[in-house]
Amino acid sequence: MSRGERFAALFGVPKFVVPHLACFVSEPEMELVLLMDGQKCSVPDLALKMKCTQLETRDLLESCYLKSIVNKEECGGELVYFASSFYDRLDYLCKFDDNYHVDQELSAALNEWCYEVYAGRMEPYLDRLQKKEEVDRAPEMFELIDNLEELLDSVSEIRLVPCNCRKLAGHCSKPTETCLSFDRSITDRTFGQVLTKEEAKEIVEAAHRNGLMHSVNSDWRTKGLAYMCNCCSCCCYPTRFALDRGTKGVFPVIKYEAQRDAVKCTHCGACTKRCHFSAFYVGEAEFVVKGKIRRMVEFDPEKCWGCGICVETCPHEAISMGALRINLKDG
């Protein structure tokens, strides 16, 4: 087994990436993972293996920790380090490393691989949700822009973090500097830009204008707001996963549904261009407006996910949001 193949096995690197390892780790970083050999190691142990001082070893480990090459934990009163994973390393690179660039073909392959890893990790969690068993975190839910003030008033610390889904997938041109972390979800590896509440409000409102939906942890009212993802359906891994698995209502939780006033609706079709789930769509029926034939816009409430981004796009205020009559899970 070559050095690169051994590193790939220890770090969870997919085979198609092995020829491109230099794009993701440096030689010293690769050597560190190889020396760890799948074990949890203390600074003194690694210093001996690396034949350098403990200070030099600790500096390298902390640098690699911040870049998601290694993780750390306390074990028996001692701090130990162990290899992270390629999945987590890629997450760091696509969000925070301005020098990270790969060609289009490799980028597309990485996106598909990452999505499959994400889906595999989510399957046990989803299974427990569907069985109504206890889970370690509440599922996400779509929240309305009307509740933004209340959401932001409930937090103390706010961090702007790039959207890793859109950074990896790149299926649309919507902005990527849109995701927010709050209070309890902010760690020493969250990075990103510290925001005031007013700055955060401006970012969410801009995301809303760009047609991005707002998802949060569904227990935010009782346990505090942890995050807000401002997402699309073409790139967002959780939304793609929910669409693939048909888990709407369980994951994500749905609290609202769109309502259309048929009298006010002029069938202009603006809502059909903004809806991520085709709840509003151009039907087959036709009618005449000022001598021109126009096809009627249909609305299927069963397809609505309650994100609410359709409301502002209607020039005649024919769309509003109402509380869902039956909530599958209380948010």
TrEMBL record:
Domain of life of the source: Bacteria
Q: Which SUPFAM superfamilies match?
A: 4Fe-4S ferredoxins (SSF54862)
Please give the Pfam families that the UniProt record associates with this protein: Fer4_7 (PF12838)
The record's keywords, sorted A to Z, are: Iron, Iron-sulfur, Metal-binding
Keyword Metal-binding among record annotations: yes
Q: Where is the 4Fe-4S ferredoxin-type domain?
A: 256-285, 295-324
Matches recorded under PROSITE patterns: 4FE4S_FER_1, 4FE4S_FER_2
Quote one Gene Ontology molecular function term.
iron-sulfur cluster binding
* Protein name in UniProt: 4Fe-4S dicluster domain-containing protein
